[in-house]
Amino acid sequence: MLPPDQIEEVQSLCSEAKSMSEAGQEYLFLPALRLPLGSNPAVVDALLSPKGQGGYATRMFVSTQVSGKGANWTTHRILDRVWHTPSWKDVGAELRLLEMIIGHLEVYK
Fold first, then answer.
1. For residues 106 and 39, what is the distance between their CA atoms, to the nearest angstrom?
2. What angle do CA 20, 26, 29 make, to 5 degrees?
3. What average pLDDT does the segment 49-74 reach?
4. Dihedral over alpha carbons 84, 23, 92, 76 (to 10 degrees)
5. In which domain, by residue range, is 48 found?
6. Which of 12, 79, 88, 102 is most buried by a 10 A CB count?
7. CA distance linking residue 16 with residue 30, whole number of Å
8. pLDDT per residue as tens digits for the range 66-84
9. CB 43 within 8 A of CB 34
10. CA distances (Å), origin 76, targets 18, 50, 61, 98
11. What is the number of structural domains in the chain?
């Protein structure tokens, strides 16, 4: 279970953030997450996987690819929805949820 106090911290950035799970994997759903200035699109739904998968310590999936940002994009079907993610490593699983999100947003700057 994702720590409720950390979910509350994330809600300062994304007020509707909530925990979700599928097949034993926990996610933090981030609806209408604002991306860094200049990103296209500027707002996406996002899904944070704080325990990682596919060789990554943590992963953050977005509802659509971000133009001109990130590399080696892949698509994944999670929670009955298609998500996209670039190859972006080194956002550690030891971080707090909010720190993970901030680390993953770096790829869109």
1. 11
2. 40
3. 94
4. -10
5. 4-108
6. 88
7. 7
8. 999 999 999 999 999 999 9
9. yes
10. 20, 16, 8, 23
11. 1
